[in-house]
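Figure S7 source data.
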Amino acid sequence: MTVKKPTPDWSPTSGDVLRDQVAAYDAMRERCPVAYSDLLGWSLFRHGDVMRALNDPETFSNVISSRRAVPNGMDPPEHSEYRRIIELYFQPERMEAFEPECRAIAVELVQALLERDAVELMEQLAHPFAVRVQCGFLGWPAFMHQPLHHWILKGHGATAAQDRAAMADLAREFEGYVDAMLQARRAAGDQASDDVTTSLMRQEAWGRQLELGEIVSILRNWTAGEIGTISTAVGILAHYLAVCPELQQRLRDEPLLLPAAIDEMLRLHGPLVENRRVTTREVEIGGRKIAAGERISLNWIAANRDGRVFADPAEFRLDRDPATNLLYGAGIHVCPGAPLARLELRLVMEELLGRTASIDPMPGAPATRAVYPVSGFAVLPLRLRLTTVFETR
Ligand code: HEM
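Tokens for the predicted protoporphyrin IX containing FE complex:
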């Protein structure tokens, strides 16, 4: 029996959506909160519906493809053991140890911006910051910056086109990088650098050492998780502050507000559009019947601006309940890298605000929005004015 495909309610790559993704997802949340599209299957736009999926992993499974993805393509109990070891790498002691290197990267890149009259923030800060921090965190050499940057860009293209062959090529490319990094460490034996990649190589799970395929998959998900979202987040934050000079000055004067302010700015404009699930049984959500085996897309951007949960959802407010913010997800797949992401974003914003007197939009050069699957900005021209007295750290 052939199952009839539902009639599409929208197209995630239509001109209207790509022109302004935040506005389009807001509109979908109100007009058609559970919507079918050929590209994504069923998209959930409301906070309550997204939470329902997050809290019911038995019905909304993460095993969305036959390709093994550690840990995000897994359900319990397999997922739980991998989560246990992955979380070891984002503990406070690891973050504390990495902070000086992460700050040094932020300082160097922000300092270089201040030597220019006009800045294109994505190219000159957001992308290099994300790539350099990820390489630093993993202990990978500087010659990997460019290949990783291009690998992420090619990944966005393949996702947008749903090009399976290109995705398989990219998986092989990444495996080659990891293999080279592991070989260098094996060759160095006891002299191998004491870094995250060496630790993973020696990591035990299930009472044995991790295999190459497992390490590749873990590192691929960390790298894709970090580089895409961090660079997008840096652009969103810089843009928000450039168009809100009062908040910009307040955060310059009171940097201790930065962690909460960053989470709230990124609630208003999410850096990650969506994540996937697949139904294991028939369900009814928002009055729509969804069959078993259907693709589900959780739209973080729309859910995090849902007025049913956030009073005055489009307002920046520091008095919200942080537990409702879905920036890093919720439930068993909640982002394990959130401590690293928060560290990176705080440091880069501290340096950007601390070393400038003002950050302004560039007159006559509006920002260009990024298009699905990327959120935020593709091009972000800004004008930075230098502080006259430098605070030494
Ligand atoms: C601003 C930056 C980031 C944002 C907004 C973000 C957001 C998220 C969200 C919403 C999820 C949940 C996905 C789901 O439920 O399907 C997630 C999962 C994940 N994130 Fe992040 N993330 C960020 C940075 C990072 C970093 C820095 C890493 C690692 C270096 C990372 C690694 C992961 C991994 C491995 C998962 C899958 C967890 C699992 O399935 O158990 N992310 N992230």
